[in-house]
Each structure stands twice: as structure tokens, then as C-alpha cells.
Backbone:
């Protein structure tokens, strides 16, 4: 499942070939993904020029010169294929410029696209309730301190709450809590200010390291059938139940279930 670093890598990969280009042709190979394609999507995109790309949480943004923005979400299995040598069954939306073809490919179809007035992006329903970007200036120890005040839920669960921090998924919350030495079970309101001051850079480091790993694979996208969005990165605790802790080397990484999802942590290093 694509997380924020995969979406960021996808946006950067698309930007290389799509930014500044005019969209010459748009093909929809079915009527919907998770949701129906917006009415008039083909007409709205055809002839438009791409004037910039961006990302908000796990959503990619393709800004057009018609004061509109194509918002895409990759769902569980979505990815963009650049210059595929042949059409594939699950290429649901295909955008063509003078030089390239971009196919939004999603076998499970949990992904979707929407077309939004650029000036009203902040009011788009998913964005209107989102907290600050983890890599932006809005995330600070003070913000987390205020958001966690008096909250009894486990800190791990509140970090997954998109209203508190946007775009953080299970992998990176586990990794950041490990790096900051915070027990994922701790009631959020009881995490100390110094611990929160460690947590903010830990969140940024784990995301930026993964984006760097994704970026190092970008050169591969020049090849035919280049697929954006998925890459291998190294995790300290995620999916390492029973493995030796890489910090203390004495404990094994434990797994527990919180809110229906797995958490991996070291009980010795995380207090
Ligand atoms: Zn440890």
C-alpha cells in the first residue's frame, strides 16, 4: 500500500516528464475506480497545460492552467506507468502529451481521481479536516503537545489520526516512535515535551530517508514500462517481530495489535 514517501516519489517522477507539458489526449478505459470518474473529466483535461505538481498527505496533485487540479489517490495498489510499451488491463486512465504516455494502473481499484478548483483545494472534503504536513513547518512539538493534551488514547493511534498529522501511515509511525524512543502504548497526553521534541525530527527523518530511497530508484523510470511508486527501504522495527533490536541488540522486536493494526516496537528502547 503506497504511503507518503511512495506518493512523493511518484509525484517527483511524474513531474520530470509532465510538468509544463500540454495534455493532448485522455482516455478512460472504464467509468470508475473506487468512485466514478468526474463528469467531463476528458474535456477538462484535454488541451490543458500542466503548470505544477504537488502532494498533500497521500494525495498527488496535478495543477492545470485552467484553474483546476487533478487530485489522485493510489489506494491499495495504484501506480502510474510512464510510457508503457503496451496497454495493460488495469490502465484505467491514460494521459498523453507530445512526448509521453502516463497510465494510472490499479488492479484493486481502491484508488481514485477527482477534479477540483485549485483555489478551493483547501476546502476539498479530505483536505478540509487534515492536520499539518509532517514535512512542513506546521508540525512541531508544540502542535503535538496541544493535540495530545488530556488524550488517553495510545500515542501510536493518535499519530495515525489524519486530523493531527496528515499522511502518516502505520509503517512510518512505528519507525518514528522507535527512533524517538517512545512506547507506542503510552497515553498520548502523557508523552513528555522532550519526547515530543525528539518525535518531530524522527518523523521527518524516517520519511525523508524513504523518499531518498525512492528517489534513488527514479532513474529506472526512464526505461519502458517504468512504474512509479514502489521501492524497498530498510526498516528498524516494522515487520521485524522476533528480530534483534538494532539499537540495544538485547531485546527482540515485539508486535502487538492496536486499533486493529500491528505495531512493532522494542520494549527496552521505547519508554
Ligand atoms: Zn531495543
Residues:
Amino acid at each position: 500500500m503506497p504511503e507518503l514517501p511512495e506518493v512523493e516519489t511518484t509525484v517527483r517522477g511524474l513531474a520530470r516528464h509532465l510538468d509544463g507539458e500540454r495534455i493532448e489526449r485522455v482516455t478512460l478505459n472504464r467509468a470508475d475506480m473506487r468512485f466514478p470518474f468526474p463528469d467531463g473529466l476528458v474535456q477538462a483535461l484535454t488541451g490543458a497545460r500542466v503548470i505544477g505538481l504537488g502532494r498533500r498527505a497521500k494525495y498527488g496533485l496535478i495543477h492545470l492552467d485552467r484553474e483546476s487540479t487533478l487530485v489522485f489517490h493510489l489506494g491499495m495498489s495504484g501506480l502510474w506507468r510512464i510510457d508503457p510499451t503496451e496497454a495493460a488491463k488495469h490502465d484505467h486512465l491514460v494521459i498523453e502529451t507530445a512526448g509521453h504516455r502516463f497510465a494510472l494502473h490499479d488492479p484493486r481499484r481502491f484508488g481514485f481521481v477527482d477534479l477540483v478548483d485549485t483555489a478551493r483545494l483547501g476546502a476539498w472534503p479530505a483536505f478540509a479536516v487534515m492536520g499539518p504536513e509532517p514535512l512542513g513547518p506546521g508540525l512541531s512539538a508544540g502542535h503535538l503537545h496541544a493535540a495530545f493534551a488530556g488524550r488517553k488514547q495510545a500515542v501510536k493511534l493518535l499519530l495515525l489520526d489524519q486530523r493531527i498529522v496528515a499522511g502518516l501511515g502505520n509503517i512510518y509511525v512505528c519507525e518514528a516512535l522507535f527512533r524517538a524512543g517512545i512506547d507506542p502504548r503510552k497515553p498520548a497526553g502523557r508523552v513528555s515535551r522532550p519526547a515530543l521534541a525528539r518525535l518531530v525530527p524522527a518523523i521527518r527523518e524516517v520519511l525523508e530517508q524513504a523518499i531518498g530511497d525512492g528517489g534513488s530508484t527514479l532513474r529506472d523510470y526512464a526505461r519502458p514500462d517504468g512504474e512509479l511508486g514502489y521501492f524497498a527501504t530498510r526498516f528498524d522495527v516494522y515487520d521485524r517481530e522476533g528480530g534483534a533490536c538494532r539499537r540495544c541488540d538485547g531485546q527482540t522486536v515485539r508486535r502487538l495489535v492496536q486499533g486493529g493494526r500491528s505495531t512493532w516496537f522494542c520494549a527496552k528502547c521505547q519508554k
